[in-house]
Amino acid sequence: MIPSHLLRRTGRLAGPVRLFCLLPLVLSTSLPGLESAGSRRRVRDSILGIRVGSSLADARTRLAALAVRQESEPEESEERERGEGRTLAWTLKGTEYRSIALKANDADRVLWITGFVRPGKEIRFSRLGDLSAARANDSIAIWNVATPEGGYRLIARGGARKARVISLLSLSSPAPR
Question: Exposed, middle or buried, 67 (CB in 10 Å: 0-12/13-18/19+)?
Answer without folding.
Answer: middle
